[in-house]
């Protein structure tokens, strides 16, 4: 606590967090965590184990073998409908691009994962809630096509609020496109592994994210189509405890394994080596 007091700053007169820049606060238990320790622990609280949302770049670094990732996601979104709500869609896109430094809500490329050649796609919740518009759908379809052409496994880390409403039916069409692209992998018996993180909802859950050979989920992740509040209001009933959380879905057969993020790469590698036809399986790796 002495170290914490040393770095603590006075709260600004206009308000603000009572936590210094060198520290962060767990969303679940409220523990104050040294930021460097928090990042080294892959954004998992060392006190209670709560899994916080993780930047897309750090997920790539966590899963891809060092020095092997080559980014391929470069498509930029358009505004074919000229959509305007409280703000023009074009302006929203510019703001998200400025905040995240990427053209849309996905980061992906080719890499090796535990020595297995792969295409890795990571959805970015920081960009429009990870919503799936035309660019995200196209990048996923192209990723699946590249994996099939080059004999690579496909690994997708999902984090999304669903379809992007500003693209209307064009966004919904991505559900069919992404599902159809997966058929190319299955035709060549190449593995597809899906990692469901908090949150994975809407059209993403209802399409490619739930169709993998192996589906991992992070502890406590919200996974579903409509949110629990909407379902509760629709059926006018109380929902079971833990409804739509990863552990609930594991119990009911929708996911194959709930895995702590700190063990995730090891278990993904085991699945890929077991399923990839061109890689000898090494038990216990």
From TrEMBL:
Binding site for Zn(2+): 26, 29, 45, 48
SUPFAM superfamilies registered for this protein in UniProt: ClpP/crotonase
Cofactor info, note text: Binds 1 zinc ion per subunit.
Compartment(s) where it occurs, according to its Swiss-Prot or TrEMBL record: Cytoplasm
Biological processes, Gene Ontology terms: fatty acid biosynthetic process; malonyl-CoA biosynthetic process
Bilayer-crossing regions: none
EC numbers on record: 2.1.3.15
Signal peptide (residue range): none
Residue intervals of every C4-type zinc finger in the record: 26-48
Domain of life: Bacteria
Keyword field: ATP-binding, Cytoplasm, Fatty acid biosynthesis, Fatty acid metabolism, Lipid biosynthesis, Lipid metabolism, Metal-binding, Nucleotide-binding, Transferase, Zinc, Zinc-finger
Presence of the UniProt keyword Transferase in the record: yes
Record text on subunit structure and interactions: Acetyl-CoA carboxylase is a heterohexamer composed of biotin carboxyl carrier protein (AccB), biotin carboxylase (AccC) and two subunits each of ACCase subunit alpha (AccA) and ACCase subunit beta (AccD).
Annotated family: Belongs to the AccD/PCCB family.
Reported function: Component of the acetyl coenzyme A carboxylase (ACC) complex. Biotin carboxylase (BC) catalyzes the carboxylation of biotin on its carrier protein (BCCP) and then the CO(2) group is transferred by the transcarboxylase to acetyl-CoA to form malonyl-CoA.
Name assigned to this protein: Acetyl-coenzyme A carboxylase carboxyl transferase subunit beta
Lineage: Bacteria, Thermotogati, Deinococcota, Deinococci, Thermales
